[in-house]
C-alpha cells in the first residue's frame, strides 16, 4: 500500500504526495484546487473542485483527523493523526487572519487562489470555549469527542481598555510587501469576583467561555478595584461606583462599552468605624470570605445606603450582614 503525505501550498491549497511504501519512490505529487471546511467534532475536510476528465482518480473530498493548535504567527495549525495511509505528524498550517472571537467560537479567514489565479477568501469556524491557562494567557479550547479538547494558546500579552473590555493584539508581516500589520481582538463580557485571589471575565454565562485569572489580593477603594496579575501583564483597574441594595447587597457598578451598567455583587459584614466611614468585610454569594476589606465614606451612600446607615447606628457595636439574598 502506498504512503500518503499531505502539505499546504502558499495559497492554502492541499498538496498530496504519494510514495511507494516498500521502495520509497514517489508516485506523484500534485496541488489540488479546493477549500477546507470544518465538520462535526471540529474535524477538517478538504472539498475538491470537480476533477477534470483526465483526473478521475481524485475524490470529491478528503477527510482529515488530527489536533488543532495556533502557531507563533497566529496561523491555524492542524497536526494529523496516523490513520490508514496517512503519515503521522504531518502538519497543515493554514495561513490567514483571526476574523472574529465570539462567545463560543473562533472564526479564521483563509485566502486562496485557483489554478486560474482567481483569488477568494472564505472562513473556518471552530466551536469551543474561551478560557485562561495557569499563566493567565488567553486560550481557546476546541470541543472534541470524548473530552479530548484541543487548545489554541495566544502567547501575546493582553490588556483591559477604557471600556473594561479585554483586548488582545498580535502582529503579522505580509511576506510579499513586508508590511507589518496589527490585528486586534476584543472580548466583550463582564467582570465578576467570587473567590480570593481570582478575577473572572465572563463572556457567556451559558457556556464555559470564562477567563478565570489568578491574581494577587485585590485593592478595593472608593472609586476603583485594582488587581495585579504578574506574568508581565498590566494591572487590571476597574472604575465604578459603590451602592447598597436591600435585596442584593453591596454593589460595584461598572459602565461598559455599550453604555450599559453592570454590577459586581458582594455580600458583606459591615460595621461603623470611629471615623466617618463604614468598614466592610466582603463575601461571595455563598457567604464565603474573599479576603478583602473595604472602607467607604458614609457620604457616598445614598438611597438604600442611607437606610442601611441608620440601621448600623442602631446596632452600635454589632456587625450587620448584607447580601446572599437576605434583606436587612
Structure commentary:
With 328 residues, this protein is mainly β. The protein has a domain at 191-328. 4% of the residues lie in helices and 54% in strands. It has 1 helix and 29 strands. The strands form 8 sheets. Strands 24, 25, 26, 27, 28 and 29 form a 6-stranded antiparallel beta sheet that branches. Strand 10 (96-102) and strand 11 (105-113) form a beta hairpin.
Strand portion, in percent?
A: over 45%
Largest sheet: 6 strands, antiparallel
Q: Which sequence of SSEs, written as H and E, runs from N to C?
A: EEEEEEEEEEEEEEEEEEEEEEEEEEEEHE
List the uncertain runs: none
What is the share of helical residues?
under 10%
Structural class computed from helices and strand pairing: mainly beta
Average predicted confidence as pLDDT: 86
Total of helices: 1
In angstroms, what separates the terminal alpha carbons? 78 Å
Gyration radius, rounded: 27 Å
| Total count of strands | 29
Shape: elongated
Summarize the structure.
The protein is mostly beta strands. The protein has one helix spanning 304-315, and strands spanning 3-8, 14-19, 26-32, 34-38, 44-48, 61-64, 66-70, 76-80, 91-94, 96-102, 105-113, 119-132, 138-142, 150-154, 158-160, 166-174, 179-187, 190-195, 198-202, 210-214, 219-220, 224-227, 236-239, 241-245, 249-255, 261-272, 277-283, 289-297, 320-322.
Amino acid at each position: 500500500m502506498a504512503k500518503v503525505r499531505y502539505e499546504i501550498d502558499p495559497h492554502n491549497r492541499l498538496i498530496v504526495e504519494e510514495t511507494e511504501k516498500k521502495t520509497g519512490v514517489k508516485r506523484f505529487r500534485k496541488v489540488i484546487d479546493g477549500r477546507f471546511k470544518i465538520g462535526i467534532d471540529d474535524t477538517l475536510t478538504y472539498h475538491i473542485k470537480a476533477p477534470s476528465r483526465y483526473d478521475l482518480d481524485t475524490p470529491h473530498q478528503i477527510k482529515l483527523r488530527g489536533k488543532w493548535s495556533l502557531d507563533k504567527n497566529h496561523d491555524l495549525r492542524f497536526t494529523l493523526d496516523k490513520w490508514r495511509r496517512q503519515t503521522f505528524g504531518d502538519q497543515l498550517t493554514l495561513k490567514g487572519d483571526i476574523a472574529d472571537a465570539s462567545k463560543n467560537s473562533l472564526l479564521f479567514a483563509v485566502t486562496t487562489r485557483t489554478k486560474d489565479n482567481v483569488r477568494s477568501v472564505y472562513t473556518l469556524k471552530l466551536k469551543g470555549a474561551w478560557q485562561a491557562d495557569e499563566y493567565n494567557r488567553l486560550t481557546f479550547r476546541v470541543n472534541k469527542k470524548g473530552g479530548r479538547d484541543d487548545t489554541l494558546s495566544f502567547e501575546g500579552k493582553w490588556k483591559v481598555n477604557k471600556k473594561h473590555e479585554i483586548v488582545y493584539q498580535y502582529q503579522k508581516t505580509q511576506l510579499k510587501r513586508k508590511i507589518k500589520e496589527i490585528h486586534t481582538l476584543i472580548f466583550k463580557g463582564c467582570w465578576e469576583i467570587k473567590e480570593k485571589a481570582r478575577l473572572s471575565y465572563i463572556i457567556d454565562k451559558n457556556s464555559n467561555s470564562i477567563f478565570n485569572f489568578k491574581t494577587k489580593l485585590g485593592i478595593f477603594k472608593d472609586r476603583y478595584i485594582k488587581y495585579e496579575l504578574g506574568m508581565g501583564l498590566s494591572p487590571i483597574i476597574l472604575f465604578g461606583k459603590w451602592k447598597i441594595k436591600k435585596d442584593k447587597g453591596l454593589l460595584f457598578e461598572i459602565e461598559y462599552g455599550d453604555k450599559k451598567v453592570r454590577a459586581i455583587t458582594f455580600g458583606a459584614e459591615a460595621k461603623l468605624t470611629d471615623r466617618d466611614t463604614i468598614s466592610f468585610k466582603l463575601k461571595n454569594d455563598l457567604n464565603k470570605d474573599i479576603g478583602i476589606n473595604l472602607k467607604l465614606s458614609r457620604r457616598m451612600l445614598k438611597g438604600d445606603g442611607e437606610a442601611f446607615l441608620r440601621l448600623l447606628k442602631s446596632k452600635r457595636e454589632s456587625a450587620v450582614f448584607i447580601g446572599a439574598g437576605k434583606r436587612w
